[in-house]
Amino acid sequence: MSFYVSLNGLKNSQTDLGVIANNIANAETNGFKKSRTDFGDVVAATALTNPRMIQGVGSTVESITQVFELGPIEQTGSALDLAITGPGFFTTVNMETGKTYYTRNGSFTTDQVGNIQDGSGNVLQTYPVDANGTPTSNTPQDTQIPATNASGSEFASVSISTDGLVTASYADGSTLPLGSVALASFLTPEGLKKVGSSNWEVSGISGAANYGSPGYGQYGTLLSGSLERSNVDIAEELVGLITAQRNFQANAKAIDTATQISQTIINLRT
């Protein structure tokens, strides 16, 4: 039995190494959230087994848990680079598939028709606002910057306030409120499904998204001209890497020892 117990230990250590390697590989990925491997022991016993005689039969990977602690904030100077200073996710919708994604990576830009998007065709969602910048609906919509205003003046620049108001400025000095950034939250963010590019989708574990505005309730404010970097701590991951490597070596040594014992028994002479 010791062979299979140690074999499970090897597989678990390999999983742990893979998770740590992925964290290290994404140490420079904006908006990335690290993961950790959680293990549990495995016990085989019946109701009649003496509790003092129960022997464990190894361990198993219970979950690979995402850690959503805030990453460091880096100033970039670009008006469409956004960082959330607390809880919340940006919401984007893919223009081709219509799928909704959630992200902490606030690196946005504009496309040829003025959509504020992430470079992959996922458009930032905002609440519609009136001329005073007050939200008129709680249903998020695509954010698009008109090339000209009502008087025909050309677009000059865009700014985003700490409370999420997106405002376009035009050559004649006028401004036009375009929307208010909608932030999403989840009852269990650890249950969000990773889909790559620092994007997540809802799942049955995460629950449906709840929406709010930056700086209100549980949601953090926005920092324009900044990005949230990966929350991976390289020093911490390297220590974890060494520990996982030692665990792997120890389990391999246990298999080697069990092999030697079995060989000794087989070679016994009567």
How would you sum up the major sheet? 11 strands, antiparallel
Record field, number of beta strands: 20
What is the average per-residue confidence, as pLDDT, rounded to a whole number?
A: 93
Q: Which overall shape is indicated by the principal axes computed on the Cα atoms?
A: elongated
Helix content: 10-25%
InterPro entries: Flag_bb_rod_N, Flagellar_basal_body_rod_CS, Flagellar_FlgE/F/G, Flg_bb/hook_C_dom, FlgE/F/G-like, LlgE_F_G-like_D1
Family: Belongs to the flagella basal body rod proteins family.
Subcellular location: Bacterial flagellum basal body
Main location: other
What does this structure look like?
A hairpin with a 4-residue loop joins strand 12 and strand 13 (165-170). With 270 residues, the protein is of the alpha+beta class. It contains 2 helices and 20 strands. The protein is 21% helix and 33% strand. Strands 5, 6, 10, 11, 12, 13, 14, 15, 16, 17 and 18 form an 11-stranded antiparallel beta sheet that branches. The protein folds into 2 domains: 2-69 and 232-266, no CATH class; 73-228, no CATH class. Helix 1 runs antiparallel to helix 2. The longest helix is centred in the C-terminal third of the chain and has 33 residues, at 234-266.
